[in-house]
From TrEMBL:
Name under which the protein is recorded: Trafficking protein particle complex 9
The keyword Lipoprotein belongs to this UniProt entry's keyword annotation: no
Highest taxon listed in the record's lineage: Eukaryota
GO terms under cellular component: trans-Golgi network
Family, per entry: Belongs to the NIBP family.
Entry keyword NADP: no
Domain Trs120/TRAPPC9 N-terminal: 184-259
Organism: Cyprinus carpio
Coiled coil: none
One Pfam assignment: TPR_TRAPPC9-Trs120
Record region (Disordered): 263-284
């Protein structure tokens, strides 16, 4: 026997074998429908008897196996059912002949046979025959099962008669020697009269009768015959048949102990054995005669041990298999016995002993097996190992079977069968196709073996022509086995994945296999590995804001946009407010083991929603798209983010005439620009706003904020005119508007005083006393004091904020903000290192002296209003004198009444100085221009003196509250005016005081002192003989109230010609000492006395 039956089990010894075969052309699906109905009749209770006949059906059975029917009767084909199609009566004779031919194949062993004919109707079909059944069609055959039961009962009748014939054989010593096929040639010429031969015949016949009893449902009788056969066969060393007798004894005992069977099938076997009591009550006609088998077996039953214990069953199996092993031609019998023993041990939960039987089965040599037989053998070994709980061993043999399906010797490799078997090995190697099973706890199984198996799955699916399946398995390998791959293996796997996805991109769909298995998607949660998840706010340019007046209750008015993690129930969700068109979902702080992705940050769109839960993120790695859920990430606590969606708003895009700057002083800025300006320089920035959204822009506001700086800024840093832009609203999608913004860098122009020590040597003083030096003087700074002007670079920063709204969001009170950062690096230009004043010839004017230093590397020109230009070379310092009218500071309002009431004294003083300095600076209108630059590209730049004016200078530039007017001979004397008069004529002198202060002043005493200046430093005050006063030279002036005036009148008489000067001095009294000296500055009076006209004639 060369073809083993791997489905054999111990209870099969109790069955009779019936072959069901198609005959002629029978549709395969129809045949197996009928075969399934036939095989459902697996046991039949015999009428008028308590016995049950068990049937084993096969649709294919090798004829050579039938030759071993005498050795074990359950291997003998005793019944044949043929299924055929016959449509016409003409086909019937041929069909009948075929049936007879088919019976001849098993004719020597057949007890009975049946022919089921489908499709034939008419006269032939109406014939009543016991061996043939006619049916109109495969669908119209209601009594198939009933005919099969009748057929089985006929088999039982033959079986029972044969059992009785064998048991009551009267041939005495001339018993037939039962043989297996390979023994027949060995027994030729054997002495048949020897005692040894007779015992051999008796032992084999006893064993054969035991088989018949077992099939006929007489279990106790079978046990007795098996025991007797074992004793007889052991005495003559008939090892092959001894093994068969032992196996029969084991099978009968197994049937007794395990009525449900050992095959593991769901349908339980019905016990159908006669009890020992029944056997004792009735006569058993199956007893042998005195020479052969006794007619009464009661004595044998008493001696026999009858049924083996559960432990003895295994021992007898081992002995039987050991005996089989002595015969090379009994390899199939030995293999099947091992399989039966394993099934029994599986029920007994004795896995280790079962593994020994299986290990023996592995090494049984069955000769040259076909590839299909090898696949079947390894598959059955896998199933048996699985049955005893050896899952990894089972997976090993199933994998061997899978590899056998695509062996090089097979002309057409079965890649589909290989793939199916490989899938069945996964549980044995602790593998699952669900990546979720690998995210819990530590890794299970041998990673190296798992990697090999996954690679084989990838290769098999590719050879099947299913690239999508290859991508899924390779993605699974990369996701679950990443930690066990070397750098080179990672490179190879990723390259392979990229090659596969170039033809078939990977996705998140579930892949359904033909056998119903579904492959779940494989999200790449390890590429990258997510460490933490946080909900980010929108970029500043997209962030929605709520108008403060429309904030709901419970909202903070200090923050129109809520961005606070809020605990949702017990899930720890985060909530944020997003706009209906654009929003940033999550940012993932990740670790990238393959250096593919540094971080993941995604945008999305929600329309017509109030709340949305963000449960994961999306990636695309190596052509595989993944949707990763946050709740499935190891080490990440967040399970989702709740997003509040607000109505749609317009979206503006900002462009500037200056290039963008990479330097962002704040993360909330949409963009920023950076430029360099000289101190005092102004440059225009053109900002273009384009509506790139879908909503119409209705409102636009522009504000600026200068960031905190240590530098003091004079004037406005950023100025603009928004009226032209507002005239273009509403702004539709795709339209743009431009806004010019002037950037003015005007910081403190004060410099280091030690630059001009040399200029102070000429007697210049801030006190206003006369000096003899010219108004301009050039000075090169001292080498040891020359400053490093590169260290003087200063920075100004400001933010322009555009607040705009429109669309449905405007109705709900939402708006957006767009911020532009402006950074200006201010280079030093000119410095006012020292400021002083000199009195002018007029009491209402003075000279402002500015020491100017050129800190640039260029030659520049400095100019002031109504003043000559001053040229300064690089690193050159010069003095500029500017004649200015004194200022009436008291008439300038400093601040309103409410601000004045709330301000401190220091704040009031600072504000007063700021206003006064601004007035002086605007009056001077100082500009400078770099000569080497073209005038068109570099206009005049301003220079401010506000930062260098101290309190003393301001007092000198202030117009005194007491205004003194001197009139000589009818003409006012001021501004170097010379009053002409004639010798001998009376010259009237009038001194007028106008009180512009806020309080009354006086009384005052004034004395007029004449003198002559010889312009050589000598002044002559002894002029009694040259000038005489008509009246007193001292004037008295009473109290003068505010806004009032007082006039003193006198006269002089010049006796000689010449240039005379009058110096009016105040008496040193208490009233004058209480007022500042600057209030008593009277003009110097120059009178020129000439000869009388008559004398000249």
């Amino acid at each position: 026997m060369s073809v083993p039956d791997y489905m054999q089990c111990a209870e099969d010894h109790q069955t009779v074998l019936v072959v069901v075969q198609p005959m002629g052309i029978v549709p395969e699906d129809q045949f197996f429908r009928i075969y399934k109905r036939i095989s459902s009749v697996s046991q039949v209770s015999i009428r008028d008897s308590q016995r049950v006949l068990f049937i084993r059906y096969r649709h294919h059975y090798p004829p050579e196996n039938n030759e071993w029917g005498d050795f074990q009767t359950h291997r003998k084909v005793v019944g044949l059912i043929s299924v055929t199609s016959c449509n016409t009566a003409k086909e019937w004779p041929q069909t009948s002949d075929r049936f007879h031919g088919q019976k001849e194949v098993f004719g020597s062993t057949l007890y009975d046979s049946r022919l089921l004919v489908f499709g034939l109707q008419g006269e032939v079909a109406e014939q009543q025959r016991t061996d043939v059944a006619f049916y109109p069609s495969y669908d119209d055959c209601p009594d198939v099962e009933k005919r099969v039961e009748d057929f089985v009962e006929s088999i039982f009748i033959v079986l029972e008669s044969k059992r009785l014939d064998r048991a009551t054989d009267k041939s005495g010593d001339k018993l037939q020697l039962l043989c297996v096929p390979f023994e027949k040639k060995d027994f030729v010429g054997l002495d048949t009269d020897s005692r040894h031969y007779k015992k051999r015949c008796q032992g084999r016949m006893r064993k054969h009768v035991g088989d018949l009893c077992l099939q006929a449902g007489m279990l106790q009788d079978a046990l007795v015959h098996y025991h007797m056969a074992v004793e007889l066969l052991r005495s003559v060393n008939d090892f092959l048949w001894l093994g068969a007798a032992l196996e029969g004894l084991c099978s009968a005992s197994v049937i007794f102990h395990y009525p449900g069977g050992t095959s593991g099938k769901s349908g339980a076997r019905k016990p159908g054995v006669s009890s020992a009591a029944d056997a004792g009550k009735r006569h058993r006609p199956g007893a042998l005669t005195t020479n052969a088998i006794s007619a009464d077996t009661s004595t044998e039953i008493g001696r026999a041990k009858n049924c083996l214990s559960q432990e003895d069953i295994i021992e007898k199996y081992k002995e039987a298999i050991s005996n089989y092993g002595k015969y090379k031609s009994a390899g199939v019998i030995e293999l099947e016995a091992c399989i039966k023993a394993v099934r029994v041990l599986a029920i007994q939960k004795r896995a280790m002993e079962a593994s020994e039987f299986l290990q023996n089965a592995v090494y049984i040599n069955l000769g040259q097996l076909s590839e299909e037989e090898k696949i079947q053998r390894y598959s059955v070994l896998s199933e048996l190992y699985e049955l005893i709980g050896f899952h990894r061993k089972s997976a090993f043999f199933k994998r061997v079977a899978a590899m056998q399906c695509v062996a090089p010797t097979i002309p057409e490799p079965g890649w589909k069968a290989c793939y199916k078997l490989l899938l069945e090995t996964l549980p044995g190697y602790s593998l699952s196709l669900d990546p979720k099973d690998f995210s819990k706890g530590t890794h299970r199984g041998w990673a190296a073996v798992q990697l090999r198996l996954l690679h084989e799955l990838v290769y098999a699916s590719r050879r099947m022509g299913n690239p999508g399946l290859s991508v899924r398995h390779l993605s699974f390998l990369l996701q679950t086995m990443l930690d066990f791959l070397s750098d080179q293996e990672k490179k190879e796997v990723t390259q392979s994945l990229e090659n596969y996805t170039s033809k078939c991109p990977g996705g998140m769909e579930v892949i359904s296999l033909p056998d119903g298995l579904k492959l779940p998607p494989v999200p790449f949660t390890k590429l990258p590995i997510v460490r933490s998840v946080s909900l980010l706010n929108l970029p500043a340019s997209l962030r929605p804001h709520k108008v403060k007046g429309l904030l709901g209750q419970g909202m903070s008015s200090a923050s129109p946009f809520i961005y606070s993690p809020i605990t949702m129930h017990s899930r720890g969700d985060e909530r944020s407010k997003k706009i209906g068109e654009y929003f940033n979902l999550v940012t993932l702080m990740s670790f990238n083991c393959l250096q593919i992705i540094s971080s993941v940050c995604y945008y999305g769109t929600f329309l017509n929603m109030i709340f949305a839960n963000v449960a994961g993120y999306h990636t695309s790695v190596f052509g595989v798209s993944s949707d990763c859920l946050l709740e499935g990430l190891v080490g990440v606590k967040s399970s989702g983010c709740m997003v509040e969606v607000v109505p749609s708003l317009p979206r503006l895009q900002l462009c500037t005439s200056l290039p963008r700057s990479a330097h962002l002083s704040s993360e909330d800025l949409s963009t920023s620009v950076s430029l360099q300006l000289f101190n005092g320089e102004t440059q225009q920035l053109t900002i273009t706003l384009e509506n790139i959204g879908t909503e119409m822009l209705n409102t636009l506001e522009l504000t600026s904020k200068t960031l905190s700086t240590k530098e003091k800024l004079f004037g406005e840093f950023l100025t603009w005119d928004l009226q032209d832009a507002l005239s273009h609203l509403p702004l539709k999608s795709g339209q743009s508007v431009s806004i010019p913004v002037n950037i003015s860098a005007k910081l403190d122009f004060s410099g280091q005083e030690n630059l001009l020590h040399d200029l102070n040597d000429d007697g210049i003083s801030v006190t206003g006393l006369p000096v003899s030096s010219p108004l301009r003087q050039v000075l090169k700074p001292r080498a040891e004091n020359k400053p490093d002007m590169t260290e003087g670079q200063r920075t100004l920063e400001a933010v322009l904020t555009f607040k705009y709204s429109g669309g449905a969001g405007e109705v709900e009170g939402y708006y957006r903000e767009l911020s532009l950062g402006v950074r200006v690096d201010v280079e030093p230009s000119v410095f006012f290192t020292r400021v002083s004043t000199l009195p002018a010839t007029s009491t209402r004017q003075c000279h402002l002296l500015l020491d100017v230093f050129n800190s640039t590397e260029h030659e520049l020109t400095l100019s002031a209003k109504n003043n000559q230009d001053l040229v300064l070379h690089a690193s050159e310092c010069q003095r500029m004198a500017i004649q200015v009218d004194k200022f009436d500071f008291d008439s300038i309002p400093v601040m309103d009444h409410d601000a004045l009431r709330l301000a401190t004294v220091r704040q009031q003083e600072e504000k007063r100085q700021q206003v006064q300095g601004g007035l002086i600076n605007s009056t001077l209108d100082i500009h400078w221009t770099i000569i080497s630059f073209t005038k068109g590209s570099c206009p005049d730049k301003t220079a401010s003196v506000e930062g260098v004016l101290n309190q003393l200078i301001l007092e000198h530039l202030q117009l005194a509250p007491l205004q003194w007017d001197v009139v000589v001979n009818g003409e006012p004397c001021d501004c170097d005016m010379i009053a002409d008069c004639r010798v001998g004529d009376a010259v009237p002198l009038e001194v007028k005081l106008t009180n512009r202060s806020k309080s009354a002043v006086g009384p005052f005493s004034l004395t007029v002192i004449p003198f002559q200046d010889y312009q050589n430093g000598v002044q002559n005050y002894d002029l009694q003989d040259a000038i005489t006063f008509i009246g007193s030279n001292t004037f008295y002036m009473g109290t003068v109230n505010p806004t009032e005036n007082s006039v003193c009148v006198g006269a002089l008489l010049f006796l000689y010609t010449g240039d005379f000067y009058l110096n009016i001095k105040f008496q040193d009294d208490s009233t004058a000492r209480d007022l500042p000296p600057a209030w008593f500055c009277l003009p110097s009076i120059h009178i020129r006395a000439q000869e009388p006209i008559q004398a000249a004639a």
